[in-house]
Amino acid sequence: xxxxxxxxxxxxxxxxxxxxxxxxxxxxxxxxxxxxxxxxxxxxxxxxxxxxxxxxxxxxxxxxxxxxxxxxxxxxxxxxxxxxxxxxxxxxxxxxxxxxxxxxxxxxxxxxxxxxxxxxxxxxxxxxxxxxxxxxxxxxxxxxxxxxxxxxxxxxxxxxxxxxxxxxxxxxxxxxxxxxxxxxxxxxxxxxxxxxxxxxxxxxxxxxxxxxxxxxxxxxxxxxxxxxxxxxxxxxxxxxxxxxxxxxxxxxxxxxxxxxxxxxxxxxxxxxxxxxxxxxxxxxxxxxxxxxxxxxxxxxxxxxxxxxxxxxxxxxxxxxxxxxxxxxxxxxxxxxxxxxxxxxxxxxxxxxxxxxxxxxxxxxxxxxxxxxxxxxxxxxxxxxxxxxxxxxxxxxxxxxxxxxxxxxxxxxxxxxxxxxxxxxxxxxxxxxxxxxxxxxxxxxxxxxxxxxxxxxxxxxxxxxxxxxxxxxxxxxxxxxxxxxxxxxxxxxxxxxxxxxxxxxxxxxxxxxxxxxxxxxxxxxxxxxxxxxxxxxxxxxxxxxxxxxxxxxxxxxxxxxxxxxxxxxxxxxxxxxxxxxxxxxxxxxxxxxxxxxxxxxxxxxxxxxxxxxxxxxxxxxxxxxxxxxxxxxxxxxxxxxxxxxxxxxxxxxxxxxxxxxxxx
Amino acid sequence: xxxxxxxxxxxxxxxxxxxxxxxxxxxxxxxxxxxxxxxxxxxxxxxxxxxxxxxxxxxxxxxxxxxxxxxxxxxxxxxxxxxxxxxxxxxxxxxxxxxxxxxxxxxxxxxxxxxxxxxxxxxxxxxxxxxxxxxxxxxxxxxxxxxxxxxxxxxxxxxxxxxxxxxxxxxxxxxxxxxxxxxxxxxxxxxxxxxxxxxxxxxxxxxxxxxxxxxxxxxxxxxxxxxxxxxxxxxxxxxxxxxxxxxxxxxxxxxxxxxxxxxxxxxxxxxxxxxxxxx
Lengths: 663, 279
Known about the structure:
The structure holds two protein chains of two kinds. In chain A, strands 1-2 form a two-stranded antiparallel ribbon. In chain A, helix 15 packs across helix 25, helix 16 crosses helix 17 and helix 25 packs across helix 26. Chain A is globular and about 75 Å long. By secondary structure, chain A is an all-alpha fold. Chain A is built from 26 helices and two strands. Chain A starts with 7 loop residues before the first helix and ends in a 6-residue tail after the last helix. Chain A has two domains: 304 residues, ABC transporter involved in vitamin B12 uptake, BtuC; 307 residues, ABC transporter involved in vitamin B12 uptake, BtuC (Orthogonal Bundle), CATH 1.10.3470. Chain B is α/β, with parallel strands linked by helices. Chain B contains eleven helices and twelve strands. The longest helix of chain B is centred in the C-terminal third of the chain and has 18 residues. Chain B is globular. The chains are: A mainly alpha, B alpha/beta.
């Protein structure tokens, strides 16, 4: 398939040009290490020497070494998991390492000093171990791995954000580090990473032959005499070690591990051995170039953007472009079909039961609380007093739960993919970017403007994905990839904005962890009103939702205007998600699991499923909010984090339960 | 409302019919299709009559599926014009077309969590649309389609739980519920064993005869095509290399040319029908 790529001379020209650009950017830094330093000539001369040898050059080397390490880790992971989206950040390695480092900084500073890399490695291995354990029974199916990885990564990131938030502004530096800053003061870290890279590379070469066979399916590999499990774990171990070392030294750098192997394939490298050489080279070039650009922009007086965030800024569009022309990937069939579920005998009764449960949850949340003297069940005048405080919170949580569940149902049916959800499509973080723009552009935007801005952000993300998905042959698997790419891109923008440390950044951090603390009656009414308006058209779209899961061909064959229907539904889902994300943050997984729960309860027809999912979403969100309020009294936990902790175990069970594809 | 829409379409068709001799089911004029620089159909002109069963045969990559997809308007042609029942195919609205043409793709999607009856009911979508009432007439058409395909006892089973042959019949029932003038089937038997292949194709033939509707069927197995079809269209490299009744196509020279491998013909021991074999 190499013939399909760019022709050879142009390809060489492209890579040569990129290398030249990176080198020029570096030369610029070497020629003028202290831009704008004041003082006498001699002083400046000496200072220049020091900065050149102890900061500029090590940073440059660090970028190259880290890029190469991540490129190698990505190439290994993609090969061994047969998964084109596998890389340290999508597998939660970086986020797990970051969480471990954050926890260690807060609770065991001594450990940080003594064994920083060990802590990072433990976190990274923990995350990957969790993902592998979750997906082992499904044969490490790519879509299951991608989803579990995203779940673990998002949860770890949010947990880090919550920890930082809970410990005040002095932890902000940790967040900047978390964005991947390559600034160096000595050669030590660079040499350390280079040594690990050399060791990792040597180990990968030793495993080259078994690795080549692991690209086939397991049974065939086993029949050729490869110890599949041992080899796979060994290779994953090497990759995680490389990625965790990088994370320990410079923080999270996304996308290099994803883009480097993909770009290497696009450049016409096909054989595994060649790829293991080319991917680190491309990774090194990517990070070197990005870091050069970041420094160039910082020199112009821009805000301090961590390089790790910038790689995602460059890498996101790159990946989208790649998805458009990628034919050289062997796309695995992302197809996670759950086992058939028996229909409920009485769907109406089931929905009534769910409604009663949701009402009970709301009543409990309103009446039962925890105070300094312990648990109190409020009633009568006390309840009336408390209603003013608890009412808005419950209303906001309920509205958000309903909207997320509806959006999830719509997206799962439109894409025909049971793993699609508001989070998976990157819409929630897109809403965050919109919110960030509003916060920075206007001094004090009101709730309505924030709502409009986050809706615009979410719609922009979805529009991008839709434009891509209109291309022929753009199936559910690429939609998922595009969504993961868009989500990572928006997360990177958010990280970069938060890293500026401004008051707006603090607001965004609060939003990221998802909090209903500041719910006011006005906000509650606005939320409920928006939910009512946005949910109202759904009953008229039930037939679309019935036909669309059968795919474009069938939908066209029965005369459904596919593109128009899909566009309308997706825009609706985006608006629902954006509104919900504004009040509870981008993370909750309620939108993903509520439709599944409804289906498992036997609500199979679209109308019943949507209604059931909405009621389940309400119940889940209200319960999460109540638990977040009472579990650690007097502290209030972030709702988004809490909801995902509740939803996580269910997803684990779901992934374990649905068997691998049978056809 | 469903009844009203029905009248509109029959009115159109009747109107065309009244204006002259019976219009052809399809009239293709210079229909070409290319992806990038790769030409799949260089330019095809042909005429298909109503009420007949056409088999599309040819080697892999000969453009059979592409042609059927173009006829179903799943894919617009790169060049050329198509008239369907005397009218420009491109001019049809989405639902009016779906009331006249039913199409089954080569790979039917998994109808996850759907019962057979619900799947067949989708065939009525072109008639009632997104908001129209699902009336008695619609229910009768669904019941008729289920009965004709022998699926009544499976009606409330989940499609996922059916065997391959039953599932294929369920999709056929959905096409019948569409109540169209023509069926387009892209390799409807590719996943079935020989008994179910024969059963499926006999069913298509019987239904096509009973309802007097035309069918265009892509088939891999030349003997199945000869057994089933009124007329066989042989494609090679996107061009029509032979066309005619099964007896005219089932000849050693024609088949050897078509598939690029030496083939012979023997008469069926019982019926005397020609059977192709590799030499």
